[in-house]
Amino acid sequence: MDILDVMKKRRSIRKYQDKQIDREDLEKIIEAGLYAPNAGGGQRAKIVAVHNKELAEKIGRLNLARFDRSKLAGGHVSSEQPSNIDDPTIKNGFYGAPAVCVIFGTKNFLYSIPDAFCCAENMVLAAADLGIASCIVARGEETFDNEAGRALLKEWGISDTDVARCFVILGYCDGDYPPMKPRKDNRFMIID
Ligand SMILES: Cc1cc2nc3c(=O)[nH]c(=O)nc-3n(C[C@H](O)[C@H](O)[C@H](O)COP(=O)(O)O)c2cc1C
Known about the structure:
The chain has 192 residues and is α+β, with helices and mostly antiparallel strands. The protein has a single domain, classed as NADH Oxidase, CATH 3.40.109.10. The protein is built from six helices and four strands; from the N terminus they run H-H-E-H-E-H-E-H-H-E. The chain has helices at residues 3-9, 23-34, 53-65, 112-129, 140-143, 147-156; strands spanning 46-50, 99-106, 133-137, 162-171. A four-stranded antiparallel beta sheet has the order 1-2-4-3, sandwiched between helices. The radius of gyration is 17 Å and the shape is globular. The model has no long low-confidence stretch (mean pLDDT 96).
């Protein structure tokens, strides 16, 4: 697909089928993340892919536990694919997606967060190109800031110098795939 078509087609999906994605596709999505632009060429971002629905759900519950309504950026996100902001009855920050990639960055590095989100953006675009639904989810650090979270980081061998920055959840869209969102006007100018 043309890259601009992929960008326009990609949407944040929050309703997932039970079906797991193939490991081969997951590996391609990870590879896309690894090729993201990165501050100073340091390639500091690291990815842990959880290709396991039960574990993804468990981490998604930890993620939602740190969801703070008082810090919301907006009151409404999506009617077709409601988020935790729209629908307080959704009990998981990962919406039942069968796979999730945790993106880590270096603690105390100025560009650790932008690095992680560049990585995430490459990954969601690669996923869209493969026909796989995705959504970037925030609250990386908070998700693991508890006993269960710390136990997972230990189990995965994550160094104390790394910190989870964000997530890319992955799966197949359940129901109608939402149409592309119209863009707001007057958001750019070209100076000749
Ligand atoms: C920095 C960032 C953080 C986000 N965090 C969340 C999140 O925690 N939960 C969620 O459901 N969606 C999250 N999203 C997805 C946005 O809600 C989504 O991109 C936005 O509503 C636009 O919709 P679209 O991706 O379908 O075009 C995040 C996106 C970005 C870029």
